[in-house]
Design brief:
Blueprint (H helix, E strand, L loop, with lengths): L1 E7 L5 H14 L4 E5 L6 H4 L15 E2 L4 E5 L2 H7 L2 H12 L5 H7 L5 H16 L4 E5 L3 H20 L1 H18 L7 H13 L3 H6 L4 E7 L3 H16 L4 E9 L10 H18 L4 E5 L7 H12 L1
Parallel strand pairs: 1-5, 1-6, 2-4, 2-5, 6-7, 7-8
Antiparallel strand pairs: 3-4
Helix pairs in contact: 1-13, 4-5, 4-9, 7-11
Length: 308
């Protein structure tokens, strides 16, 4: 099994390139899943699917063709499936402060829930051997780093803090509930956490195994975008992940010779030279700026031709 993470600054074209990669792999005969971990999902839009703005059609793997499926992790669905005890307790605490039910439900979506839900699916699909390749369309850089660091952080908490925390609250709960304005979480709350952690077993090793997981950083030939890409490269490397490709999107094609673009072309050339020098020997792939807007499979196939 292979796992490919597409990450980079917001707006550089990660989703389109991840979708094009998934399409190309499926055409080569690999059972492929493209999964969006970005809360601002646009994967269905990349395939030009006929869905509403907030359609939950892709909250489970949706089959595109024989070898390709897409999946947009929907946090509302995941709370019902995996986070019910935790979410219910947080909502009950928030309600005691006078917050309305709707506001309490929104605030109960804690940071990291979406990323952990995606990791649970990756682990599940790996165990089931359902897919040969999973392409992860990650959120912008900061959230992507949280995505890869969270399993290690949670592992430390579960081993060093969780048993003490659970045991202490079990001992003081009967007395504390008599005097506290808010009831302490029940043991089922901690059981839910333990159950979720069990579903993440093996994820840190999976992410750090270069034979299975690698990162593709998407950037544009612009100085500000490049600086974030360089930081991301260092951060992912420090977390033990292998970056095996840099994709430079929206490069001006050679046939663009209009005088209006001369300075833009010179600026891009300077940044491209810096990219090649900084990331060597990591492979750098250039994807041209398209001259017209295309939707769905046609656009993704042209992107795939530029990439592969």
């Amino acid at each position: 099994m292979r796992i490919l993470l597409f990450s980079g600054k917001g707006g550089v074209g990660k989703t389109s390139l991840a979708a094009a990669t998934g399409l190309q792999l499926s055409k080569l005969g690999y059972r492929t899943l493209v999964m969006s971990v970005d809360p601002a999902h646009s994967l269905a839009d990349a395939f030009d699917l006929e869905t509403g703005l907030f359609d939950a059609k892709t909250s489970d793997p949706l089959r595109i063709d024989d070898n390709l499926s897409i999946h947009e992790v929907n946090i509302q669905q995941e709370i019902k499936r995996h986070w019910s005890e935790i979410s219910s307790y947080v909502i009950s605490v928030l309600r005691t402060t006078g917050i309305s039910d709707v506001e309490a439900e929104e605030l109960a979506i804690l940071p990291g829930m979406e990323e952990l839900s995606a990791m649970m699916y990756v682990n599940q699909f790996r165990r089931e051997e359902r897919y040969q390749v999973i392409v992860l369309d990650c959120a912008p850089t900061a959230e992507s780093l949280r995505f890869v660091s969270m399993p290690t952080t949670l592992d430390w908490y579960m081993k060093h803090i969780f048993p003490f925390h659970r045991g202490l609250l079990k001992a003081v709960r009967p007395l504390a509930n008599r005097v506290s304005p808010v009831e302490l979480p029940t043991d089922s709350y901690f059981a839910n956490i333990a159950s979720l952690f069990a579903k993440l077993d093996g994820i840190p090793e999976l992410l750090e195994d270069a034979r299975i997981t690698s990162v593709r950083l998407v950037t544009n030939p612009e100085k500000m975008v490049l600086r974030e890409t360089q930081r991301a490269f260092v951060y992912f490397s420090l977390h033990g992940l292998t970056v095996d490709g840099i994709i430079v999107n929206r490069v001006l094609p050679e046939q663009v010779t209009d005088v209006y673009f001369l300075e833009w072309r010179a600026s891009q050339a300077k940044v491209l030279a810096e990219i090649e020098a900084y990331f060597a020997p990591v492979k750098v792939k250039r994807v041209p700026l398209f001259t017209h807007e295309m939707l769905g499979r046609e656009r993704l196939e042209e992107l795939a031709r530029s990439l592969y």
